């Protein structure tokens, strides 16, 4: 038998024998060895982790458009960017989310598919904090993309399911005077009458019964719940608890009608200290946009002015809420988080209501303001603005009554003591003499001559003194006592020549040009201190400022704080209207302490000179307020001001403290277009001092 090896050998010999010239034939080609190769390995895809982090990170920052850019093409086909963004925003708003934090827990990758497990920690202003575990699928489309569906937000968000917040009401904190005995703002129990549409058994009967009770048209009632889901409680109208009790039997006979507890804000002494107490009102669109994340809803009210506005975060408390996922039929799928309500804390003001009423009485029908400040504690004991208004008009009045108040040309809603801006007139000379003594090279006995006319800026810019005959030869000290304009024109000009920033710097050191930010006050005006460096302010302008005229503007509160600063030896403190904030039984108490704003750049010696001059204003013959204090048993240190305000009469000012040698309170009185400060304002201030110190008239 021929073996396989023998056969191959014979074949080879036969091939050799077939060549014509075996000796000249080319050598056979070398054998090529074929090495088997392994199949090609595909290039590995990048990790989906970064895309997942980008998607979740954008969620944390509320960058929903960036999230949409990271979802798959199929997902984009199922939802538009507008709808996607709206879904996330609506859930964040409904849930009152204040922060979102995410963390990737695990990742399962198989070729072009991946599943990412993650946790999300959410803080809700109403429902508290909660943590959810979830998953999302990812696919590779020239980059990793999220296969998005609503369950990526919360696993229970199946088609048709929604996130809903049930809020738990609380009681707004109250506002009291300094004794805690007089309530300035409180709450009245109310009942919200609502309808659950699915429980309506006889609609005509229900509507005919409710219409007269609620004093509403039957159609208006029906329109309220016409578009509501069947299981919703739809508020129809809020009525007093007394009225609800009166019709209790009729409500019980209507299965679809439910009542819920509520309250409304009331002001027991509604025409006293109204500018300080302030009021609440319905939240507007801009406020809701800003505060929605804090749990406010379109039906909420909030502080609009005064302590009500300043203390909103304390007075409101925590509403509390239960955040759930609902099925289309209203059934709860799951509760995401829940937190109970916490009542608001009450605000205890520094107001002495007896003094407050006295100030308002003394202002009478004169437009203006008056303030009493405790020099030792910086507490606002009383602050009156005239004309005033009734707080209950804004909360309980008719729309026509409210509109009439808003349109009143006397501007009764304006707090003239903190928001009214006026030239202060000669009261400002306290600032000018301070700068002159410290930086202007002047001494208390520096001499001037007042002929009644001053031409320091040239004859064409001549200025007159308030005393037509002039004061003759006079010192700087006496210039403050007698309020000589020409003395202070000269000092103002010299200061401006030395350094244009000197007078503005001293004005700001006394607290002008900035709101006091007194705890308890809202919407204070800053006033204006002209700045020759930044503005188009000329030398003559600063000469006018030296006597409190020109573009200088201040509030009465800033002026009285200046007098308190002189009285206490040179420390500018922040006034305060609030003594403490606390809950029931004094829990969660927070005391408001005195706060130092700054120190006057005035030496003790120069400050004593100013104090002595202010005392002489009321106690010596030449003093501009001496006539108003003849026979006074209290030594008062103060300064008059008569601030020109064309086309009307000048604004009348008097600002002072007493007792002059042991100050306890500072007082300011400003009468709009009242004329001479010594005649219109100083006599009222005297009455205020005598009332405080219980001096018999």
How would you describe this structure to a colleague?
The chain is an alpha+beta fold and 697 residues long. The chain has 25 helices and 27 strands. α6 crosses α7 (218-225). The longest helix is centred in the last third of the chain and has 16 residues, at 604-619. The protein is elongated, with a radius of gyration of 40 Å. Mean pLDDT is 92; it is low at 1-35.
Oligomer designation: single chain
| Radius of gyration computed on alpha carbons | 40 Å
What share of the residues does DSSP label as strand, in percent? 15-25%
Helix count? 25
| Portion in helices | 25-40%
Q: Compute the separation of the termini in Å.
A: 155 Å
Q: Based on CA inertia axes, which overall geometry fits?
A: elongated
Strand count, sense and barrel status of the largest sheet are: 7 strands, mixed
Low-confidence stretches: 1-35
User: pLDDT average, as an integer?
Assistant: 92
Total beta strands? 27
What's this, in brief?
The protein has 697 residues and is α+β, with helices and mostly antiparallel strands. The protein contains 25 helices and 27 strands.
């Amino acid at each position: 038998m021929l073996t396989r090896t023998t056969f191959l050998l014979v074949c080879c010999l036969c091939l050799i024998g077939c060549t014509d010239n075996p000796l000249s034939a080319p050598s056979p080609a070398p054998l090529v060895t074929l090495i088997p190769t392994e199949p090609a390995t595909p290039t590995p895809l990048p990790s989906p982790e970064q895309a997942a982090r980008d998607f979740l990170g954008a969620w944390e920052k509320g960058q929903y458009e960036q999230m949409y850019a990271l979802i798959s093409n199929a997902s984009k086909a199922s939802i538009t960017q507008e709808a996607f963004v709206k879904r996330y925003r609506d859930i964040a708003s409904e849930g009152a989310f204040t922060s979102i934090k995410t963390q990737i827990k695990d990742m399962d990758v198989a070729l072009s598919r991946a599943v990412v497990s993650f946790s999300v920690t959410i803080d809700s202003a109403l429902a508290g904090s909660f943590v959810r575990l979830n998953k999302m699928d990812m696919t590779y489309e020239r980059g990793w993309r999220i296969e998005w569906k609503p369950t990526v937000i919360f696993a229970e968000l199946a088609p048709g399911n929604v996130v809903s917040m049930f809020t738990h009401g609380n009681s707004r904190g109250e506002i009291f005077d300094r004794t805690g005995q007089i309530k300035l703002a409180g709450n009245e129990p109310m009942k919200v009458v609502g309808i659950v549409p699915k429980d309506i058994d006889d609609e005509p009967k229900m509507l005919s019964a409710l219409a007269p009770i609620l004093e509403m048209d039957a159609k208006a009632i029906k329109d309220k719940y016409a578009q509501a889901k069947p299981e919703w409680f739809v508020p129809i109208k809020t009525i007093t608890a007394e009225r609800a009790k009166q019709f209790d039997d009729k409500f019980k006979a209507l299965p679809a009608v439910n009542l819920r507890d509520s309250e409304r804000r009331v002001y027991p002494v509604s025409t006293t200290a109204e500018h300080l107490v302030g009021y609440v009102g319905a939240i507007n669109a801009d406020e809701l946009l800003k505060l929605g994340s804090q749990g406010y809803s379109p039906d909420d009210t909030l502080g609009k002015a005064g302590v009500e506005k300043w203390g909103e975060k304390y007075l409101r408390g925590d509403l509390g809420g239960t955040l759930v996922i609902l099925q289309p039929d209203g059934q709860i799928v799951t509760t995401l988080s829940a937190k109970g309500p916490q009542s608001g804390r009450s605000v205890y003001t520094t107001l002495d209501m007896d003094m407050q009423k006295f100030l308002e009485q003394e202002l009478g029908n004169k437009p203006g303001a008056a303030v009493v400040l405790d020099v030792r504690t910086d507490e606002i004991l009383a602050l009156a603005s005239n004309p005033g208004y009734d707080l209950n008009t804004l909360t309980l009045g008719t729309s026509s009554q409210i509109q009439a108040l808003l349109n009143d040309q006397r501007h009764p809603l304006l707090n003239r003591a903190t928001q009214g801006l006026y030239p202060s007139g000669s009261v400002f000379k306290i600032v000018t003499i301070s700068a002159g003594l410290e930086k202007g090279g002047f001494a208390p006995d520096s001499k001037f001559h007042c002929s009644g006319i001053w031409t320091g800026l040239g004859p064409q810019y001549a200025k007159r003194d308030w005393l037509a005959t002039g004061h003759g030869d006079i010192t700087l000290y006496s210039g403050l006592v007698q309020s000589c304009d020409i003395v202070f024109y000269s000092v103002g000009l010299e200061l401006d020549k030395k350094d244009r920033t000197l007078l503005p710097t001293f004005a700001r050191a006394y607290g002008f040009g900035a709101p006091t930010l007194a705890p308890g006050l809202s919407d204070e005006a800053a006033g204006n201190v002209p700045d020759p460096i930044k503005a188009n302010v000329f030398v003559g302008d600063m000469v006018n400022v030296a006597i409190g005229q020109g573009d200088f503007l201040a509030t009465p509160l800033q002026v009285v704080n200046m007098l308190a600063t002189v009285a206490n030896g040179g420390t500018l403190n922040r006034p305060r209207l609030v003594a403490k904030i606390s809950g029931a039984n004094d829990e969660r108490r927070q005391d408001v302490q005195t706060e130092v704003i700054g120190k006057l750049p005035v030496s003790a010696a120069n400050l004593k000179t100013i104090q002595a001059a202010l005392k002489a204003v009321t106690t010596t013959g030449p003093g501009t307020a001496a006539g108003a204090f003849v026979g006074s048993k209290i030594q008062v240190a103060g300064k008059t001001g008569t601030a020109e305000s064309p086309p009307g009469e000048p604004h009348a000012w008097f600002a002072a403290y007493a007792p002059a040698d042991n100050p306890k309170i500072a007082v300011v009185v400003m009468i709009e277009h009242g004329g001479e400060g010594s005649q219109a304002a100083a006599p009222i201030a005297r009455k205020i001092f005598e009332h405080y110190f219980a001096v018999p008239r």
